[in-house]
Amino acid sequence: MSRQGYPKQLLALLNDHSLLQNTVLRLNGLHGLAAPILVCNEAHRYLVQSQMAEIGYPDVRLILEPVGRNTAPAISLAALAAQEVDPEATLLVLPSDHVITKLAALHSGIRAATELATGGHLVTFGIEAAAPETGYGYIERAEAIQSGYHVARFVEKPDLEQAQKYVDSGQYYWNSGMFVFQSQQFLTALKMHAPLIAQFTEAAWQDRRVDQSFIRPNPKAFEDCPGESVDYAVMEVAKGVAVVPLSAGWSDIGSWQSLWTVSDKDSDLNVSKGDVIFENTSNSLVFAENRLVTVVGLEEVVVVETADAVLVAAASQSQQVKVLVDRLQDSGRAEHLLHRRVNRPWGWYEIVDEGPRHKTKRIGVMPGQRLSLQKHVHRAEHWVVVSGVARVTCDDQVFELVENQSTYIPQGSTHRLENPGEVLLEIIEVQSGPYLGEDDIIRLDDAYGRVEGR
Q: CB 127: neighbour CB atoms within 10 A?
């Protein structure tokens, strides 16, 4: 379900909101919070912006990484951004792909961590270990301090025997990857323990470019920055690191099995989403996006159906999806990159059918949005309006079409599609020509600053 162009953070797995949206919404009720700062990949900017607007944050600040460089550089950029608003700002750092079900416990933990951070500590949250989990790192606690503990050490992911010893001792927590610290305290520790990261992120920030709500650090400086996790760069080596225990129904949703664990289940311990029928099946998870899926006579399986792929796996082997993704990439396939529905800043499109010299798309344009002014060297297009109102530019003509009306865009013509209405515009586009690749676009004007792709 997650693809390179549509990562896990943007999926709605437990309710009607995505994991990213839930990360922001679960902070409602905490006092003294400034507007969130989001750090994400440049390629996901419009998806993230759209999801934030859906939950009431249309003007959220987005720091766009030109490449991924792990959590230490990302947090450094956020700290630099916060410093410019308030030199004494405290940062609450949250990955956007976690599930937390007990909000009162989370809020209590954040307040406790903030108190420690105000006193100059770099604070992490330790999840009270419910089982000897080998997929998480661990934090060993030392002596108590206020509502937390000093950290004795961070421990890499252990084997099962060692993990059991950690749980039995009562001195270890799962490493959550969530933090609270003063921005200046973090930046000072980063300069001391990871000076190259501090140097390059500061250079990238100082030479940033701001485009509306998008903040783009200097690409060259950020690409030259070492990629390192915040644990390695700062938390494992700095002084004054503290841990606040947290028992808040936390999971990082690292596999389908972990999603099954935190989801509501029926009387046979099955989890389902979509059009699913179980018969004599138990302890299973089935997601259906597009069609009816039936499962008969099975136990502990995962079945996930999307428009272009189906996964069937033993629940205990669901983490092997990562191996499959590597095989898809090595074989030159495209399923790991995008869903059949491809999101664009103006809306989306789906490929309905394609063959030699023809391709049919279903296109949705959001109200008030428009595609780039463009032309194609190799193809012509026919547009049929399914619903809504289409404003069409074709060479020197501008006209509107409504439901059941159509038009023809000759090969080489300059054209644009717009939605001037207040509801979604849907059209069917039929392309014909010797080459129908998405790169056959000469873009003449674009409201979103793109240089390639539709």
A: 24
pLDDT of residue 448: 83
Distance (Å, rounded) from C-alpha 352 to C-alpha 157? 44
Domain boundaries, the chain: 8-251, 256-327, 341-445
Q: What is the DSSP string of 288-352?
A: ESSS-EEEES-BSEEEEE-SS-EEEEEGGGGGGHHHHHHHHHHTT-STTT--SEEEETTEEEEEE
What is the C-alpha separation between 307 and 316, in angstroms, rounded? Answer: 25
Homologous superfamily in CATH for domain 8-251: Spore Coat Polysaccharide Biosynthesis Protein SpsA; Chain A (3.90.550.10)
DSSP tag of 43 = G
CA distance 408 to 392: 10
Nearest of 183, 193, 16, 175 to residue 83 by alpha carbon? 183
CATH topology assigned to domain 341-445: Jelly Rolls (2.60.120)
Tens of pLDDT, residue by residue over 201-256, are 999 999 999 987 899 999 999 999 999 999 999 999 999 999 999 999 999 888 89
Strands 138-145 and 406-409: unpaired
Section 180-185 average pLDDT: 97
pLDDT for the residue numbered 400 = 98
Q: What pLDDT shows up at residue 59?
A: 83
